[in-house]
Amino acid sequence: xxxxxxxxxxxxxxxxxxxxxxxxxxxxxxxxxxxxxxxxxxxxxxxxxxxxxxxxxxxxxxxxxxxxxxxxxxxxxxxxxxxxxxxxxxxxxxxxxxxxxxxxxxxxxxxxxxxxxxxxxxxxxxxxxxxxxxxxxxxxxxxxxxxxxxxxxxxxxxxxxxxxxxxxxxxxxxxxxxxxxxxxxxxxxxxxxxxxxxxxxxxxxxxxxxxxxxxxxxxxxxxxxxxxxxxxxxxxxxxxxxxxxxxxxxxxxxxxxxxxxxxxxxxxxxxxxxxxxxxxxxxxxxxxxxxxxxxxxxxxxxxxxxxxxxxxxxxxxxxxxxxxxxxxxxxxxxxxxxxxxxxxxxxxxxxxxxxxxxxxxxxxxxxxxxxxxxxxxxxxxxxxxxxxxxxxxxxxxxxxxxxxxxxxxxxxxxxxxxxxxxxxxxxxxxxxxxxxxxxxxxxxxxxxxxxxxxxxxxxxxxxxxxxxxxxxxxxxxxxxxxxxxxxxxxxxxxxxxxxxxxxxxxxxxxxxxxxxxxxxxxxxxxxxxxxxxxxxxxxxxxxxxxxxxxxxxxxxxxxxxxxxxxxxxxxxxxxxxxxxxxxxxxxxxxxxxxxxxxxxxxxxxxxxxxxx
Length: 612
Fold this sequence. Notes:
By secondary structure, this protein is an alpha/beta fold. It has 13 helices and 44 strands.
C-alpha cells in the first residue's frame, strides 16, 4: 500500500511542477479557455494553438500568466526553435492572424478583457499585414522573436508600449505614431537575438514618451516604401522629425544597409551609436541635420560585458563604430558632449564619405579620437562650435579634406596637440585660405598663456595669405615679415634699425679715415684758420643723424661725402680703396631705410599692420 501512495504523491508533485512551468511561460491548460478565447472564437473560427495561447495569456482573468505567451515548443527565447529565420519550417499551429490583433485593439468588448500587461507573444508567425493605423491601442504589444513577413502599418496610431525584439519583419510604416512609453525595435542585451527588417522602417514624426531602442537591429532598404519622397537616399530607417523624451540607441551591433535618417529629431537624452554599423556607399549613411540632442552624441566602440563568451573576431566587429558613406550633422545642437572615438569612416576615393558636422553646436567637449578616415574621408567643422576640442593627429584627415573655417572652440582638452608646429600642420590640411582658423587658434593659444605661439600662428596666417600672390606682393610681404613680423613683432624693426645704424657707423668711419668726408657748411667751407671751431665729425652720431628722420644731431648738416674724391683704408693688412660717390649712395639708402623702418615700427606698435 505504501508504494502506491508514494507513487501517487510523486505523480502529483510532477504534475504541479509541469503546470507551474507552463504557467511561467504564459501557457495554460489545454482544457481551459478564458472568456477572451470564447469571444474571439465567435469572430475567428478555427483558432490556432498560438492564437488560443495568446488570448489566454492576455485575458484579464488570467492571474497565472508568465513573462510571455510562448507558442512554440520552447519557452526559452534564444532556443533555436524560436529563431524567426527558420519560420518557414514552423507548423501552422504557430500562426496568428494579423486580423485578430487588429480586432483586439478596436473591439471595445475584446480590448476591455485584456490585462494591462497587454499582448506578449514569443515565437509566433503573424499571417497577413498588421494594420493599426489611426487606432488607439489601449494595451501594450510585444511580439518577440516573431516572423512578421508582411507590412506593419501604424500610421498615427497611439499605443502605450511597442516591442518587436528579435523579430523578423517586412516594412514598417508608422509615421506620427505615438508611443506613451518605450519603443523597442531591437535591444542592447541580445536576450532575444537580432531584430531584422527586410523593408524600410518609417517612423517619421513619431512621438516617444520613453526611450527608442534599435540596438542589435538589422535594417535594410527595400522596394516596399512608396512613401519615400527621396528614393535616391535608399532609406533603411527614418526617424526624421521624431520626438523622443529620453534616449535613442542605434548601438550594440546595430546594422543598416541604407540611410538612417534623424533630421530634425528632438532627443531629450543621449543618442548612442556605439558599436553601430551604417552602410550606404557613396550616399548618406547617417542624416542628422537640424536635430537637437539634449545629452551626449556617441559614435564610439561598444564595450562588451560578455566578450569572454564570444570569439575575439566577433567581439572586435561588434565593438566598432563604422560608417560607409557620408555622416552628415548639419546644424545639430548637442546639449552635452559629442564623442567620436575609434570610429571608422569608410568609402572609396571616388565616393563621398566622412563626417560633415558643419554649423553643429556642442555645448561641452567635442572628442575626435583615433579616427580612421579612409581613402580621403572628409572632416567638415565649418562654422561649428564646442567649448573644448579634444583630438589627436591620427584623427586629422588627408590634406585638402579638412574644413574648419568658422570653427569656434575655447580650449584644447585631454592629450590634444597644443604646440604651434603641430597646430599649424593641422591648419595646413585645409583647402584654400581663410583667416578665421588662424585667428581662432591664436586666440586659444594666447588665452592658454602661449603668447609666442599665438604670434607664430598669426605670422603663419600672413604667410598663407600671400602664398599665391604676385611677385610684388610676395616681396613686400617678405619685407614686412622680416622687419616687423607683419606687425605682430614690431620690436624686430628696432633690431634692423640697430643693424643699419651700426653698418652706417662703420661706413662713415671708414670714409672719415680715408679722407672722403668733407665739411659742407651751407654758406662756405671754413678757412683753415677757422677749422678748429668747425663742428667735429662723430661717426656714430653721424649714422644716427642720417638714419633718424625726425632727429637733427647737427652732423649730416656739416659733413657729407665728396663724390669726386676717393681714398685708401687699410683693413686687416689689406689696402682698400674708398669711393666718396659709393659712400654717398650708401647714406642715401640709409636715409630711405630710416624712413621705412620708422614708419613700419610706428604702424606695428599702433596696430595698423595687424589683421587680428
